[in-house]
Amino acid sequence: VNETQQLARLIVRSQPQDIPAAVGHEARRCILHWLGCSVAGSRQESVQCALAAVDELSGPRLATVLGRKEKLDVGHAAFINGVSADVLSFSDTHPATLIHPGGVIGSAALALAERAGAQGKPVSGVRFLHAFVIGFQVACRVGLSVYPWHYRRGWHITGTAGIFGAAAAAGMLMQLDERQMVWALGIAATQSAGLREMFGTMSKNLHIGRAAQGGLMAALLAGKNFTSSERSLEAPRGFAEVLGHAPDLAAITADFGSRHEILQNTYKPFPCGVVLHPVIEGCALLSTANRIQAGTVRRIALRCNPLVLELTGILSPATTLEAKLSVYHAAAAATVAGQGTLQEFTPEFIHHPDVLALREKVDVVVQAGMGEDEADVTIELVDGRAFHCHIEHAIGSADRPMSDRDMQDKFRGLTAALLPASQVDGLIEACGRLETLDDAAQLASLATARGTA
Amino acid sequence: VNETQQLARLIVRSQPQDIPAAVGHEARRCILHWLGCSVAGSRQESVQCALAAVDELSGPRLATVLGRKEKLDVGHAAFINGVSADVLSFSDTHPATLIHPGGVIGSAALALAERAGAQGKPVSGVRFLHAFVIGFQVACRVGLSVYPWHYRRGWHITGTAGIFGAAAAAGMLMQLDERQMVWALGIAATQSAGLREMFGTMSKNLHIGRAAQGGLMAALLAGKNFTSSERSLEAPRGFAEVLGHAPDLAAITADFGSRHEILQNTYKPFPCGVVLHPVIEGCALLSTANRIQAGTVRRIALRCNPLVLELTGILSPATTLEAKLSVYHAAAAATVAGQGTLQEFTPEFIHHPDVLALREKVDVVVQAGMGEDEADVTIELVDGRAFHCHIEHAIGSADRPMSDRDMQDKFRGLTAALLPASQVDGLIEACGRLETLDDAAQLASLATARGTA
Predict the structure, then answer these.
(1) Fewest beta carbons less than 10 Å away: which of A11, A298, A420, B291?
(2) Any CB–CB contact under 8 A between B228 and chain A?
(3) What is the per-residue pLDDT across A435-451, written as a single tens digit (0 to 9) for each?
(4) CB–CB of A53 and B226 under 8 A?
């Protein structure tokens, strides 16, 4: 069996009408979510440094840097939008592979949609959604063929497998034929890279950008009949054997048209490790429902899974990174703000007097029987009243996925400070009716910051 | 020991005056040789396709596409010049790692020299040579740390290790500080890619281009303080452990300043497998010395190492690739032409009546005792005369490296059809006195084809 050729054939022969409604729905959510992450990440240092480095290389500035005013050529736009998608570590996750597919696939596809629009042949919303779904599928299926050995070995799978998905989506938007798609997958395979050693540095974000850009480049090259191996996935010196061990090649194409990986996709409601999610949800819920003022709180009593203190036990966090590892901060901040967004993890908020005072009042009791997505929260006031709630499964967990409304709220939280309200609403609306758009590049213009670069 | 930081320190602290004269001499030869390969390769299909794909992405066209009229931004020029360096499989080889370093290091360094010139701060020949020597050293040392397991596993080491050398050379020309150099090496590490499965396709050439471009990109990013791991070579999830097995980390920095890998570099005199080299040399020598006309030959009798028939036994080659695997063609062609250049492996030459007639007259006897670089050649004429020579060690073998004159002849053979004679002479002259150049980018302008793009 030649998996590479089989995969290319499945990609090229796939039709938009083959995509089930539920898959299209999840793809619209995933695209909105990625756009939110990239807009929110667009002012972070990784993005600033990368943009400063590549700006001098930019070709015709056809493509949008999400959340900003600058434009770049399509390759570099895909790169920067991949970096920004990852920088807040707030992306989507395909649990079976730990791939964060949205940013890689989206960044490659959107840049090509803008290119097509500039060439007077816009990519419709239907075609964009279709390419996104298949690109997502390809990245995750390739990932499944080598996971978990590949990830344990030290490969950052979002980069290494993501590039295949980016190449597939880009190739579809360029309408590559089957042979060219084989080459695009091969050119992706032979650029596949990214080490987990980079976690904690800007180069982690680089992986997502380079995978998007490299996948796009693979499609551009294949479109000019630049050749590659036609067995790049399965050959003895191909991707799966060289970057994997005893790969499960069948995972690549099995039930390709009927078992869509995107239906397994998950999203983080809060910008920190998942063990803190039930705590934040409980505190925010009680605070909001009861209009609790920080000064009136006597004690916040938590019962949680033991991992909470093991992973997030920092008592006096000073930085954003430390605050994300502090249950004390998380509980105090969610109580003060009634929410747990990026805002509540900024240095300003961490050092806010109300938060500093309240985190001293957080008592944590861990209990082996509690689920990782479970928490019991009691907020006692100085006037003697107490409010209690029990979060059995935190929002965003497998048992309680985020609703469309939750996704929209997260998107608003990510973008409100950076885009005008009309554009925030416009993006939610446009993603919601993506299949009706004549030109998917509208998403890019709606995600552009106002003013001049 | 932290190898990455140690290596960065060695790179940054190295001074041009630390480079021994013999090392500088070999670097000048290597640079001339690479320029010849890239110019000669510049019209091949890999280059045409790649150029067609990236042209639309090009930023400011500051940099030369060697051997052609087009210009590209520095990143894409490094890419294309890397592709052209490799496309004829005629490059230099570092025998201990099988890396072909010249094209990767040269392409990155030359593009940055052109950038510097455009910014009014030209890179002197002294600095260029220095960066080239150190970049060469870094690529080979990183390669040594993982060879041979890495290569056997399926990694195309010219790409995977080459990118470190390109990053080092580029970083030196950008005058990165030590910390930035650590990051540049890390950004190189996490882009390191290239599968041997691509051999026989254009994507093999891609590896050299992407390594040059990726190394240059690593230096540009690091120059803007884009961070990476500071242990990218040695960490458990770093380059050597993930892409290698039981790596020899000490090889990276041991005797870095005194044991120069470039002194081991080798060059092919003829554009085919080395087992044919003594045959071609012998036939060309007899033909030239005795002004032999093809029509006057009765028989060409060869005694060779058994590998000759094993690897190059094709009787009636029809294509360039087949001709390179045919001792019959090689002997006939070298006798007809008095040389064995690219010209003698073109389809036109392969089907030339004199060559077709003569290859029927080639008799090959293999003999176990003959060296791989040895051949015994007798050309018998119809008039009864016979000429004989014995090649004990073919030119280009370890025992008989190509002289400077041989290198110049090869360079002329590579470039004569594509550049005006004045530029061919100019390049030989400029490489010969590289340390006296005020602006190393002169090499690029001398290697530009005439006319408009």
Answers:
(1) B291
(2) yes
(3) 999 999 999 999 999 86
(4) yes
